[in-house]
Amino acid sequence: GALVGASTAVVCLSAVLAACGSGGGGGHVAAGVPGGSGRAVAPTGDVSLAPLTGGSASRPGKGPRGDTGAADDGTTRPAGSPGPPGPSSGVAGKGAGAGSGAGNGGPPAPASAGGSPGRARASSGSTPTTVPPTHPAPSPPAPAAVQVGAPEREATGQRWCEKVTLSFRNTGGTAVRSGTVTLGTHIIGALGIDWATIGSTRDLPAPIAPGAGTRKSWTVCVDAWRVPLGMHIETRDVSVQWK
Q1: Helix (H) or strand (E) holding 179
Q2: Tens of pLDDT along 2-42?
Q3: Which fold does the domain 146-240 belong to in CATH?
Q4: Which helix (H) or strand (E) holds 71?
Q5: How many CB atoms lie within 10 A of CB 183?
Q6: Is residue 12 within a helix (H) or strand (E), and if so which, with residue range?
Q7: What is the value of pTM for the model shown?
Q8: Which residues 6+ apart lie within 8 Å of 109 measured at CB?
Q9: Are 153 and 235 in contact (CB under 8 A)?
């Protein structure tokens, strides 16, 4: 009798639960009692275990990607957030960081502080360096140089005297301040024989500017006894010293 009563109570309870669940139009009825946790029993016979593959498999305690669940590092990520990067992401990131240039697909190498080498070479080639012109040091002026013309001679009333005129020109770059003129007077006999040469000194007509010229006349005489009757004098030699 007790067993029949218990079965009747279970049937009535099931009917009540079914009626409550069917009121919403989509309920489920929980029937049966979950089994107790016991020790797992190894399979027998021709049974083999294989791990599930594919993106649909999930591990216990972790939600699928796209659902709210715990990440691999233990943190909770909101729904719709992308999952952790796969192994390929780390490899790609390492390759992009190690290489540079278009061949590796990474960002271009940063330019140096002074600009790219190509731009620096173009700039240096298009802007020549201007060198200031150098002027040679002025050369010192040329020293004074006196040129003397041939002596112009004129006879006087005495055999032992004559008038001598000389022309001087300074062809140097410095003025002639002073100097001396040495004259050589020859004593000529009646037959044209040169018996002797008598020298005398006169002052140079100075100063003489560069490029300028001047003339000077002197009366040149020798001792009277050196020129007997029939002889005369001729002033032929001229030498000049100046400073």
Answers
A1: strand 179-188
A2: 444 445 555 545 554 544 444 444 444 444 444 555 555 55
A3: Immunoglobulin-like (2.60.40)
A4: none
A5: 19
A6: helix 2-21
A7: 0.46
A8: 100, 101
A9: yes
